Amino acid sequence: MNKLFKALNYTFNNVDILELALTHPSKSEKNNQRLEFLGDAILELIISERLYNKYKDKDEGYLTDMKTRLVCRPALVRLAKHINIGQHLILEQSHEKTGGRNNAHNLEDAMEAVFAAIYIDGGFDNAKRVINQLYDSLPELENIVPENTKGILQEYAQANRLNLPEYILIKQEGPDHNSSFTVELKLDGKVVSKAKGKSIKEAERTAAALALENLGIKEND
User: Fold this and answer.
1) Contact 206/67 with Cβ under 8 angstroms?
2) Global pTM?
3) 2-143: which CATH topology?
4) CA quadruple 162, 166, 170, 174: dihedral positive or negative?
5) Fewer Cβ in 10 A, N or C end of the chain?
6) Can you tell me the distance from the alpha carbon of 136 to that of 94, in angstroms, rounded to the nearest whole number?
7) Contact 146, 73 (CB under 8 A)
8) Third-level CATH fold of 149-215
9) Pick from 133, 149, 136, 84: which is nearest to 110 by CA?
10) What is the location of CATH 3.30.160.20 in the chain?
11) Which among 40, 121, 213, 219 is annotated as catalytic?
12) In the annotation, is 219 catalytic?
C-alpha cells in the first residue's frame, strides 16, 4: 500500500478502511459500495467549492458545467489510473481475469470510495487537500466532456414518457477556424439547459450533461 500512500500524499492511520474502499462487490459482501456513496457526496462538495473559488466571475451555469466535467466517470477513471488504483483493487479471481482491474466502473467506484476513506480516517481537511492536489496534477480534466450524456437523457425521456430531447443551435460565434456554438436543450418542450462548445456535438453533449445534473441523474445511474 505504500505506493498508493505516496500517490495520494496521504498515509492512513487505519489501513482497514482503505482496504474496504478497494474491495469490489465480487470479493465480499463487505465492499466499497457504501463508501462510494459517501465519496460521491464529498467529491461534489469539494469540487463545487474549488470551482466557486477559482472562477469568481462565472455564473451558475458555467460552474455546473465544469463540475459535471470534473466528477463524471471519464474524469474519475483518469484520476484512478493516474495513481494506479487498479493494481490495488481487491477482486474475486474470475472478475480479475475478465479485466476487472481496468474496468471503468470499478475504477470510478474505487476512486470515490478512497476519497470517503480518507475523510473517515483523516477528516474533511485531508480529503479536501488530497482531492485538490490530484485535480491540480491533471488540469486537463476540465476539458473532458462526459460520455453518452445524450443517450442517457433520451432513455430518461422514454422511461418517463416525455417528448424526446431537442437540441437547438441558438448562436455561433467567432471565425470559421475557431468558432464556438451555443445549444439550447428542450425536454418535453421546456428549456432545461444551455451550453457552449467548440463544435455543435460538444455543445449538445454538454447541454445534456447539464440537464442530467439539473434532473439529479448521475451519468452511470
Assistant:
1) no
2) 0.74
3) Ribonuclease iii, N-terminal Endonuclease Domain; Chain A (1.10.1520)
4) positive
5) C
6) 36
7) yes
8) Double Stranded RNA Binding Domain (3.30.160)
9) 84
10) 149-215
11) 40
12) no
Active site residue 112: yes
Active-site position among 112, 121, 204, 213:
112
pLDDT tens digits in sequence order for the chain, 221 residues long: 889 999 999 999 999 999 999 999 999 999 999 999 999 999 999 999 999 999 999 887 788 878 888 998 889 999 999 999 999 999 999 988 899 999 988 999 999 999 999 999 999 999 999 999 999 999 999 887 666 788 889 989 999 999 999 999 999 988 887 788 999 999 999 999 988 888 898 889 888 888 887 787 765 54
Burial class of residue 81 in the structure, from the number of CB atoms within 10 Å of its CB (0-12 exposed, 13-18 middle, 19+ buried): middle
Radius of gyration of the chain (CA): 19
Tell me the backbone φ, ψ of residue 55, rounded to 5 degrees: -115, 75
- All CATH 1.10.1520.10 domain ranges of the chain, comma separated, are 2-143
